[in-house]
Amino acid sequence: MTDSAPITSDVRVRIAPSPTGPLHIGTARTALFNFLFARHVGGTFVLRLEDTDVARSSLAYEKDILDGLHWLGLTWDEGPGVAGEEARGPYGPYRQMERLPRYAEAADRLRAADRAYPCFCTADELEAERKRLEAAKLPPRYSGRCARLTEAERAAFVAEGRWAALRFRVGEGVVAFDDMIRGRVEIDVANIGGDYVIVRGDGTPLYHFTVVIDDAAMRITHVIRGEDHLSNTPKHILLFQALGEEIPRFAHLPLILNPDRTKMSKRKSQTAIGDYISEGFIREGLVNYLALLGWSTGTEEELLGLEELCARFELEAVHKGGAVFDRERLEWLNGQWIRRLTPGALVERLQPFLEAERVAGRIDRAPSEDEILALVPLVQERLPVLGAIGDLAGFLFVDRLEIDPALLTPKRWDTATTRSGLVAAREVIAAAGSVAFEADELEPPLRALAEARGWKAGDLFMAIRVAVTGRTATPPLFDTLVALGPERTLARLEAAIALLPDDPT
Predict the structure, then answer these.
(1) Which of 260, 335, 469, 472 is deepest in the core (most CB within 10 A)?
(2) In the chain, what are the domain boundaries?
(3) Residue 343, phi-psi category: left (phi > 0), alpha (psi -120 to 50), beta (remainder)
(4) Nearest Cα to 334, choosing from 280, 284, 387, 285?
(5) CB–CB of 210/51 below 8 Å?
(6) Out of 266, 268, 320, 456, which one is annotated catalytic?
(7) Predicted confidence (pLDDT) per residue in 403-440, tens digit
(8) How far apart are alpha carbons 71 and 384 in whole angstroms?
(9) How many Cβ atoms from other residues are within 10 Å of residue 136's Cβ?
(10) Are 372 and 408 in contact (CB under 8 A)?
(11) Which CATH number among 1.10.3720.10, 1.20.200.10, 3.30.1330.40, 1.10.10.350 corresponds to the domain 405-499?
(12) Contact 397/372 with Cβ under 8 angstroms?
């Protein structure tokens, strides 16, 4: 259903990222909601690359965006040729830089109809105007100084060598539309800043122009995008009307907010999808969480796979209020999906993270598939992200364990007690022998040791844990000892004992 669902309706939606940065959480959530809506109604999901910002666009960012969308499982029905594949779809090309003649033709039509006019204002003149309005505590607005130039005046500017941008005449009145999420929206044209530039002086078309031309040409029926575009919508509707094109329906998604309810941005938060992938969030968990950022099923259910999300997603059920990004909830959801993986699938997904630990020098060797499989019962219930495997079990794959002596002594013990406890524990463990080296054989005698000495078992177990792993938090202690094996367990206990003075006085 999600990869190649049959097209059964006329609904057409699009995601149109600009390759001027990596795939952002907000863009990914918008792409997901468009995808879910299209799949839910049997519509078409289109990918278009808005690459007219030549100075900031890059192939590296394009690859990051496309790889990220693929990783999330958001496959498009129509889009540009990528990774050696042919472009597909009847309304191409799907890269804006390949559509420049279409924008030029539309610009000519608007100018011929006097819906757009050349503007010869220089950057300095516009800046002076902006400062004047700012000093008067007025909102920025183009004065319209070039709107009424005669042909002779325009010719004179051309003779001076001035380049002309092209401005769209916004006119007067109120633009009204029914937003599928926000309901009725009415915005006075007087509040959109006056006539706006649609083509720069160098001939480069601007976003507000290209997005309308492309949405009309690609027969987009529903524009689903972030709330930050709400104020742009009147500009776009006016252009649709001026071009004689059908106006799509609009749905503006709530902003994604930081915990302090400010808009999520890379200055305050981790926003790149690639960073979450690198940490070890899995696609099932991240997709599930993104879907719940501003939408819910109306029930208590939280664990929803992509197929089920497609079946249940209703655009009208998207919330109006901002969606707070909760890292703890994301980790919880991700952990729940990790628990659902088969042992074989978890081994496959853990392998690159353990190899990364080896490359970084945090472990001495990457374990075999069989060794990782043996780890699964110990770690699967404890992994919030796959990248946590190093902290959780990396101690198993180091030849020489580095221990912070300060961690060896439990809070209720002194150094002498710790040394005495580890010496006694080593004797008990050695007495078990390799044949009886199982969790249920090791625990009873060590608990008996603590009781006989008047120690709390937790203190003894913590000292042993730090001695053999170097960490205070690990999988269950006795399973950890079994995973290490008798020889390494005893050797690490001896090394830890050596760190503690025989006579602390």
Answers:
(1) 469
(2) 12-87+257-324, 99-253, 341-397, 405-499
(3) alpha
(4) 285
(5) no
(6) 266
(7) 998 899 999 999 999 999 999 999 999 999 888 899 99
(8) 19
(9) 7
(10) no
(11) 1.10.10.350
(12) no
**69 residue type, one letter:** L
Q: From the CA atom positions of the chain, what is the Rg in Å?
A: 31
pLDDT digits 0-9 by tens, 270-315: 899 999 999 999 999 999 999 999 999 888 899 999 999 999 999 9
Token digits for 322?
């901002």
- How sure is the predictor about 4, in pLDDT bands with cuts at 50, 70 and 90? low
Residue 266 bears catalytic tag: yes
Contact 407, 463 (CB under 8 A): no
- In the structure encoding, which two tokens stand for residue 164, read together? 């002309």
Same CATH fold assignment for domains 12-87+257-324 and 99-253: yes
Place of tokens 């991700």: 334
The CATH architecture assigned to 12-87+257-324 reads: 3-Layer(aba) Sandwich (3.40)
DSSP secondary structure code for residue 85 in this structure: P
Give this prediction's pTM: 0.92
Which residues make Cβ contacts (< 8 Å) with residue 451, sequence separation at least 6?
457
3-class DSSP string for 348-416: HHHHHHHHHHHHCCCCCCCCCHHHHHHHHHHHCCCCCCHHHHHHHHHHHHCCCCCCCHHHHCCCCCCHH
Three-state SS for 426-495 is HHHHHHHCCCCCCHHHHHHHHHHHHHHHCCCHHHHHHHHHHHHHCCCCCCCHHHHHHHHCHHHHHHHHHH
Q: Which CATH superfamily, name and number, covers 99-253?
A: HUPs (3.40.50.620)
